[in-house]
Protein 1
Amino acid sequence: MRSWSGPPVPSLADGGLGTGPVPVVHDTAAGEARTLDGEGDARLYVCGITPYDATHLGHAATYLTFDLLQRAWLDQGRGVSYTQNVTDVDDPLLERATATGIDWVELAERETQLFREDMAALRILPPEHYIGAVESIDLVVDLVERLKKAGAVYAVDDDLYFEVHADPGFGSVSGWDAAAMARIFAERGGDPERPGKRDPLDCLLWQAERPGEPAWDSRLGRGRPGWHIECAAIALAHLGTDFDVQGGGSDLVFPHHEMSASEASVATGERFARSYVHAGMVGFEGEKMSKSKGNLVLVSGLRAAGHDPMAIRLALLSHHYRSDWEWFDEEITAAEARLAAWRRAVDRPTAAPAGPVVAAMRAALADDLDAPAALAAVDAWAAASGDDTAATTQLRTAVDALLGVAL
C-alpha cells in the first residue's frame, strides 16, 4: 500500500546546534518512564486506521504523538524504521459500506486516500512500511500456523481462536484484572459470551467465510483475518521481535495491544515490543470523539474551512499527548494567534539567541514528549528581543525539525 509524501526533516547538527538527548517516554506496560535508548535504527509500530470515515482530531493527535517521537530520535542522530497498518477489511468497514450503499473496497480506498491527504497537510512523517490487512493475509496465515504448532489455536465452528493463557505473560501490557478485561473486551469488538470458547477472553484469529462478506482462500480455509493477529503479523514481518515501541491511542491498550503482544510472543518465544506508548482520547462537548457518537471534528473539515494546517498542528501540540482533553472552537483561534506570533518573530532581522530555546525544546520533548513545554519555550523567545542575526533562521529550522511546524 502506498504511504504519503513526508516533509524533509532538517538537521540541527548541520546548523551548529549539535544533537538532542535520548527520549524518555511513559511505558504503559511498565507503568513508569522508560529511556528509549539502543543501537541502530529505532523500530516503531503504530496501529493505523480502519478506513470507514474521515480523519478526526483524535486520529491526528495520536499520529502526531509518534511524529514527535520520530523527530526526537532523528534529532538524536538515530534512524527510524516505522511501520503502520491499515485495517482495510473489518466489521465496522463492512457495516458502513452496507449502510451507505458503497462498495467496501471503494469506501476503504476513498477514506485511506483522505487520511493520506490529511497526514501530508499536517506534515506527519510517513511510515516506511504502510501495510493493508488485505495485502497481509499470507503473513497472517503463516503466523496462525505458527500458533497452531505452539498448541495455542482451537476451532469454534469453522472459526479459529487464540488461547490467550498460552502466554504466561498475558495481561502484562494493560495490567488489568480478568473482570476489567472481560467488560472492556465486550465493549471493544470481543465476543466473551460466544459458546464453545475455552476462555471468554480468547480472541478470533481467522473468521470463516460469512454469506455476503469478503473472504480469501487460504491454508486455513476460506475466510479473513481477525483484528489483533493482523497487527502482530505485520509488525513481526517488517520490524521483527523486541522492537522499540508499540504505539496507538489509549483505547488500544486492551484488547488490541494485549492480544497482539501475546500472539506474537507465543509464536516466536520472544518479547513483542520493548515499550508501549499510548496517546490520550480527544473529546467534544463532554464525550469521547468517535464515529459511533457522530461528534467528529474532522481534519479535512477544518482544512476546508480555511484553517492553516500548521495552526491545526499547533492546537494539537498544545495538549500533552497522554492527556484526555476536549476540543473547543477556541482551540483553533488560539493556535492561529500563536502561529502568527511565531511567524512575525522569525521574520525579524534580529532576535534573542536560539541556543537556549532550542535546548529547552529538546529537553521538553525528551521528557515524555512534553510538547506544551516546548511551545511555551518558543512563545517566550518570540516575545523577547535581541541582536542575534542568525537566531531567526536557527529557530525556524528548529521549529521545523523538532515540532514539524513550517513557519
Protein 2
Amino acid sequence: MAALCRIRHRWKRIQYLHVFTRNLAGKCDYDLVVIGGGSGGLACSKEAAQLGLKVAVLDYVEPSAKGTRWGLGGTCVNVGCIPKKLMHQAALLGAAVKDAQKYGWQIAGTVCHDWTTMAEAVQNHVKSLNWGHRVQLQDKKVKYLNLKGSLLDEHTVRGVSKAGKETILTAKNIVIATGGRPKYPTNVPGAVEHGITSDDIFWLQKSPGKTLVVGASYVALECAGFLTGIGLDTTLMVRSIALRGFDRQMAGLVTDYMEAYGTKFAWNSIPKRVDKLSSGVLQVTWTNTEMGCEHKDTYDSVLWAVGRAPESKALGLNKVGVQLDEATQKIVVGADESTSVPNIFAFGDISEGRPELTPTAIKAGKLLARRLAGQSAELMNYDNVATTVFTPLEYGCVGLSEEEAERRHGEDQIEVYHAFYRPLEFTVAERDASQCYIKVICERGGDQKILGLHLTGPNAGEVMQGFSLGLQCGATYHQLLQTVGIHPTCAEEVVKVHITKRSGLEPTVTGC
C-alpha cells in the first residue's frame, strides 16, 4: 500500500511538472477552457471552437441536498426555464379547459391532472436536450469533460471525476460560467432535512401534494403558480414584499391575480422550524411579524425559494487572486467580462452585477468568445434586457421600473402612460381581467424617450420581445403612437396608451 501511495504521489508530481514546463514554454493544451456547462458556458465554448480555437468545457453536477442529479445544460435546461415553462403550460391548459366549456366544448366527466404523466414528459424532453448538447459539442469539436473544475494557477485547471480521478489541463484563457444553486435558510431547523428546492421540484416522480412555497422571488411565484394551476393546495409564504427589484405596482397586480387564482398567501411571515410528524406530513411553524403571533400548519412538501448562491467556493479562486464581492461572493468583472486576473474571465450568474438571465449569459458568452478569438471588440450591452415572470398572469417588462425612473430622473421629469385592458379571450370565458395592465414610462421632455415598458397579461413574454427591440433602438412615445397595432391582440393595446397617471383620468380601455 505504501509503495502504491509513493507511485501515485510521484505521478502527481510528474503531472504538475508537465504543467509547469508547458507554461514556461508558453504552450498550453487548449486555447480556452470553460468551467461550467450551462447555457452560457456552452454558447461560449461552441462559438470559440467555430472561430478556430481549441476548446474544452468542464461540467459536473453536484447532487442537490435531496440527491437530485441531471445532465449537461445547466440550470436553465434542467431545473429552470425549460421545465418551469412546460409546467406553467400545463397549468395554463388547466385554465383553458375551464374556458373551453364557455366556448362550446362539451367536456364529459371530471377533469383532473396527473403529475406522473406530466413529469415524465417534461423529464424526457430535458434528457433529450442533454443529449443534444453533447452531440453539438462533439460536432463543433469541443472537448467535453464530465469533471469538476477548479483553478491551480492562472493557466491551469484541475478536473476531478465522480470517481476521484484527477485530470490537469492548461489553457491560454480560462472562462468561469458555473452559475449558482438554490439556498436553504440557515436558521430554520428541519429546512434541509425535510425541504426541497427548485433543484428538485421538476424531477419529483410523484406529486408534491399540499405544498408550502417559501420565498418571494420570481422562482417562488412561478412555482406556486403552476402548482396551484394543476390543482394542488398551495401556499406562498412571503417575508415582506414579492418580486423585489421589479416595479412595485406590477408586482402587486401579479400577486393579486395569484390570490384570486387560488394561491394562498402568508404575508409578513417568517418560518421558524419544520418537523416531520409520525404520519409523514411536515409541520411548519412560523411567525407573523405584523401580528407577532405564531402559526402552525401541515404540508406534504415544503419548497424553499429564498435566493441563490454563486458556485464560487470550490473553484480555488483565492489561489490565483480572482477578486470576489465580499457580500455576494460573486466574481467582480469588468465591462469585457474580465476578472482581476488578466487571462481569466467570468460571465452569467457567477458575475457580480449581471442579470441572472439565460439569454444574457448566452449573448455575453458568444461575444466573449469572439473577442478571445480576435474576431470582434464588441461588448455585451446589459441595458434594456427584457424578461418575463411566468406566473398565472404573465408579467413582461423591459427597461426601468417606475421607482427606478423616478430615482434616476426625478418624479417631475418622467411621464407614465397607462391602461387597464381586457384580452378578447377573457370575454366569452368571463375571466377577471382587473389585473391586465400596461405601463409605459417615458422622459417627460423632448421626444419623450421610452425608459421602461411593463405589461401583465396573456403571452406577456411574446409581446415584450418585440417592444424590447424598440427600446434598444431608442424608441420614443411619439414613435409608439405612430405604430399600427395588430387587431385584436393584447400587444395592440400597448401602442394605444394615451392616458397619463398625472392626469388622474380613468385608464380603463373601453373601445377603439
Protein 3
Amino acid sequence: MTLKYAYHSAIAGIGATPFTKDSGRTPMDQAVEACLAACEDAGLPPEKVNGMVTYSAEQNPEIEVARNLGIEELTHFSMVHHGGGAACGVVAVACQAVYSGAADYVLCYRAFNERSWHRFGAGVQDRPAGAEAVEVSFSWSSPFGLVTPASWVAMFATRYMHEYGATTEDFGRVSVVDRAFAATNPYAHFFQRPITLEDHQNSRWIVEPLRLLDCCQETDGAQALLVTTAERAKDLKQTPAVIASAAQGVAEDQHMMRSYYRDNITGIPEMGLCARQLYQSSGLSADDIQTAIIYDHFTPLVLPQLEEFGFCDRGEAKEFIRDGHLERDGRLPINTNGGQLGEAYIHGLNGIAEGVRQIRGTSMNQIDNVENVLATAGTAVPTSALILSQPS
C-alpha cells in the first residue's frame, strides 16, 4: 500500500513519557500520558480526537485510552500487525483516515513495560505447540534452536557477511554512531555514555555474529503521534511534518523474522518494495533525503536497508558506513535521537517522533538544511516506511 495522497496529511503533535528500565507504572498510565502530551504539543484539546490507530501488539485498547482522555466518540479505530513492522504503517493508516474523512484527528501510540514486564527478546521457547498457523510456523525453526529474535537475525547476518565480506566491526560502527547521538540527547537512556568500536568488539556474544551492543534496548515507556490533514495542521501550534509518502510492504514468501526460504536472504525485499513506492509516489529519491531514522533493533539489518533505499549499491553498505556517511557530518546521518540502541526501544515510534523534530528544527542533534527525512519500520517482518517533508 502506498499513499499517493499522503501530502495531504501531517504529523502535528508528538508526545512521550520518560524512557526507563523500570517505570513503576502501568502501560495504560504511560499511554495516556504520551497521548495527552501529543495533543498538548499540537495545541489540540484531546476531546477533539476522533480516531486511533495502534499496533496489534498494543495491550492498551483504544476504548480504554479514549475513556481516560475524555474522548466520547471515535469514528475510526484500527490496528496494524507485525510488531515493529507496524511503526510507519500506523501513520499510513491514520493518513487514510484523515484523508477519507473517517476522522479529523488521529492518535497513534505505543506503550509498554518491555523491560520490567514482558520482554520480547526472551524468545518463543515457552509457546505451546498447536495447529494454528502462527504456532505451526515456529515448528520449522524452533527445534533447531532458533527461538529468539537475535538468533533469527543472526542467520541473515551470517549470510550477508559471507556474501559481501562485511565484518562484525561494520555492524559495530552502526552501534557507535547511534550511541554518539544518544550521548548528546538528554532523553536517551545512554545519555553521556558514548562507546568506541573497541567497546563493541569487547561486548559479549549474544548469538554469533551478534554481540550485546548489536542488540537494541528493552524499554519501559510510551510514544504518541497526532496525525491530521496538512490543512488542519496549519492552524495548530507546531510546524507540521508533512507526510510526503507512506508505504507498507510484504514480499514473496514472507515469514515473521524467518524468511529463510528465498533464493537470496542478504536483502530485505519487503523494504525494497516500500522504497519503490515511496520514491514513485513522492517523486523523491535517495538524493533528496538529508537524514534518516533506520530501524535498528539489530545492527546487521541496517546495512541492507541502506542498499534497498539506494544510498549505496548492493553489498556496498559496509564501505558507505566505513567512510563515515552515517555520522553527524556524513552524507546520511542516521538515528539522531540515538535510535533504538541508544535512546529507547518503543517499536520504532520514537524514531518517527525524532523525524518530526528534524523537520521542525528542534532535534537535540539537529542536521542542517533538512527538507526530507526517511523513517523505516521493523525489518525481517512485513514492514513499512515513510518520508516526512517540510510544509510547502
